[in-house]
Specification:
alpha+beta; D-Maltodextrin-Binding Protein, domain 2; Dipeptide-binding Protein, domain 1; Dipeptide-binding Protein, domain 3; 3 domains; 8-stranded mixed β-sheet; 4-stranded antiparallel β-sheet
């Protein structure tokens, strides 16, 4: 690192004070330095998590921690995020995909000593399905009718209707397999157990988490380091400075602005995974003026998607097409990019009775990127069409309690889901619990149901293409781009890569 770029500890402490980091940095230095015993230690900078209890994870920090101390039936593996078996050895299904049987690896142990069996898989899913738990993953298993322990390692799922993609539900970060004989209600937020490559030895909420290598992990020689130290820092700028100064080794889920800065640092390498991340500008279709599709189309024609991609994401993403199935998904159909057409937008508004233009309020969370930049750039880009957007930002707590699902126009960030049908059922079906646009279209509901249950791929593709066409031309949202998931590590760390689905990957990191 050159003298002009080097960050001294004194400068770091000064900058941390400026950014308002709400942590005791002296406490961080006391535990996060290189272990005196010569152990190989990788330090990971994250925000304090909302939860570390498997099945109840609500943010990226909890997800990255759970990905280290728990494991999943399936993982996204390697820099290309290839679908890979993890705790599952094999699986099969009935011809109509209404019955699924999963065979677990034998000899896998939880950190508290008991062996992973079919009882634990059954317990995990039934716990997620329990409405009293309140798991964000509950909707994934609404189709499950019965779960049967076939033998010690085989678990069978009977579904109420066929589901060709049932296995994809187990890629969700809240589906890590947990133990039936451990009290997660009591210890889930203190020191939960799992089958992961690392096990928790110390956790001080809001300050640190220390994990050590699991000697009984089922993959030979994995992990390759002795300890993970999670340094809990609220401020993204502080985490970036800590990576640049060498006081942490890895950052996952960094902001785009930090990603761009880190990408220029000679001592750091960056990683990003494209996916279905998006920030829809949603319009309530059950209220004027957006109950008229001409108005919705006018807003879509007023939008310059390429400008939004470049101005908000600096090109680190993919063009959006006003429907949620990103090019990452195999069911994506290229229907062409709707180009900005100001005159057509004005004409549509005039036809709908808004010849003098349209004034609307747009609500968004100020602390969830890229929502603020999306809102600001959208406001500027649609103004020439006579669409006057009044921005009203608020902290995410206020946004989700007062405006989300309530306001006429909103911007919300949606994470990538391996099973795109989960997004379609949640946000675009008429009865979807997170239907931001309050959109009701019986033809779309039918196509989503058919895409969910049809087995033949060529027939399914027709239904998915119809879904994309309906939402693009009649739906409730402008989706100008699909963003990526961004991460970074110091160059003395090898084999770190960003994972698009939230179940982060630290099992294979090495120190040189």
């Amino acid at each position: 690192m050159t003298d002009s770029r080097k960050i001294s500890r004194r400068k770091f402490l000064r900058d941390a004070a400026i950014t308002g980091a709400a942590v005791s940095l002296s406490g961080l230095w006391s535990f996060s330095g290189r272990a005196q015993s010569g152990k190989k230690v990788v330090k990971v900078g994250v925000r304090p998590p909302i939860s570390i209890n498997p099945g109840l994870l609500g943010d990226s920090p909890g997800q990255v921690m759970a990905g280290a101390f728990t494991d999943y039936l399936f993982r996204l593996d390697g820099p290309e995020n290839v679908r890979t078996n993890s705790l599952v050895e094999d699986y099969n299904y009935s011809q109509d995909r209404s019955e699924w049987t999963f065979k677990l690896r034998e000899g896998v142990k939880f950190h508290h000593g008991t062996e992973l069996t079919s009882t634990d898989l059954k317990f995990t899913v039934e716990r997620i399905m329990d409405p009293d738990l309140g798991s964000p993953a509950k909707s994934l298993f609404s189709n499950v009718k019965k779960i049967e322990e076939v033998d010690r390692y085989r678990t069978k799922f009977y579904l109420t209707k066929p589901d060709p993609d049932f296995d994809l539900n187990f890629y969700d970060y809240n589906t890590s397999i947990i133990s039936h004989d451990f009290d997660y209600q009591k210890y889930g937020e203190k020191k939960p157990t799992g089958t992961g490559a690392f096990k928790i030895t110390d956790y001080v909420q809001g300050e640190k988490m220390i994990m050590e290598r699991n000697p009984d992990y089922f993959l030979p020689d994995v992990p390759f380091v002795d300890e993970l130290h999670f340094v809990l820092v609220p401020e993204s700028a502080t985490k970036r400075l800590m990576l640049q100064s060498g006081d942490v080794d890895v950052l996952s889920k960094v902001t785009l602005s930090d990603f761009k800065r880190l990408d220029k640092d000679p001592d750091v390498y960056t990683s990003y995974a494209s996916g279905g991340f998006q920030a829809p500008i949603s319009m309530r279709t059950d209220r004027p003026p957006f109950d008229d599709n001409r108005v919705r189309l006018a807003v879509k024609y007023a939008t310059d998607r390429r400008f939004m991609l470049e101005s908000v994401l600096s090109g680190f993403g993919e063009l959006g097409h006003d429907q949620p199935i990103a090019p990452t998904y195999k069911w994506y159909t290229d229907l062409g990019t709707r180009k900005q057409n100001i005159e057509k937008a004005k004409s549509l508004l005039a036809e709908a009775g808004h010849g003098n233009g349209l004034e609307m309020k747009l609500n968004y969370p100020t602390n969830i990127p890229p929502c603020p930049d999306t809102a600001l750039n959208f406001q500027q880009i649609v103004r020439p069409a006579g669409i006057d957007i009044k921005l009203e930002g608020s902290n995410s707590d206020v946004y989700f309690s007062k405006y989300w699902l309530k306001a006429n126009m909103t911007v919300t960030q949606w994470a990538h889901r391996v099973n795109i049908l989960d997004v379609l059922r949640l946000a675009y079906r008429s009865d979807g619990p997170w239907n931001e646009g309050h959109y009701h279209n019986e033809e779309l509901d039918k196509e989503i149901d058919l895409a969910s249950t049809t087995v033949k791929p060529e027939v399914r593709q027709k239904h998915f293409t119809n879904i994309q066409r309906i939402i693009r031309d009649h739906g409730p949202a402008v989706i100008p781009f699909h963003q990526s998931s961004y991460g970074a590590a110091r160059k003395n760390v090898k084999d770190f890569w960003e994972v698009r689905n939230g179940s982060h990957e630290l099992r294979f990191v090495k120190l040189t």
